[in-house]
Amino acid sequence: MFFDINGLSGKNAYKLMASIVLPRPIAWVVTMKEDGELNAAPFSFFNVLSGDPPVVALGIGHRGAVKKDTRLNIERTGEFVANLVSEPMAEAMNITAVEYAYHVNEIDQAKLETTSSVKVATPRIVGAPVALECRLWKEVDIDGRRSIFLAHVEGVHVADDAVIDADKCYVDGFKLDLIGRLHGAGWYVRADKGFQIVRLPNPE
């Protein structure tokens, strides 16, 4: 079936895109407010776009007519930490997805702990199997209500038991126990299955 995106409402276009690009990794983004208080929120319009140099993209829309806290904080500080979500942390992540008022600290609401980052002032979430310390490179405004944030990854934290060979940067992805977003509200997937296909040699 063909869907003409130009003929769909914004709501239906969102539902369609969110239902077919699967699974989507979740960036559990921590940012810092003006007074040093923290904000945490999950975003599944997120991915790595470049490996050398390492660049990630994060899509953030408005909350109604108001910019989301994460967007305000990134625009002000120019940095954020993208934590990846393991299945044991899914419930805590879900708590931080609530649209609290700006003064509410989602870290406290979810009873999470944070620890210092190395390259940025914003801390990372204790227990997250992966944390990407990110510095904003470029904000791309889409339509006045949504922006794509492109950021350089300044440092990466990976759970020790998932690192196979630190010198060669080999990581066992299954040991990260990550989850991703699926179609529809509340649907997630475990990244606990996989298959391997050996790349074919160049015919030349």
UniProtKB/TrEMBL annotation:
Pfam families: Flavin_Reduct (PF01613). SMART domains: Flavin_Reduct (SM00903). Gene3D superfamilies: Electron Transport, Fmn-binding Protein, Chain A. One of its GO terms (molecular function) is oxidoreductase activity, acting on the CH-NH group of donors, NAD or NADP as acceptor. SUPFAM superfamilies: FMN-binding split barrel. Keywords: Flavoprotein, FMN. InterPro entries: Flavin_Rdtase-like_dom (IPR002563), Split_barrel_FMN-bd (IPR012349). Residues 19-172 form the Flavin reductase like domain. It comes from the Bacteria. Its cofactor is FMN. Belongs to the flavoredoxin family. This is Flavin reductase like domain-containing protein.
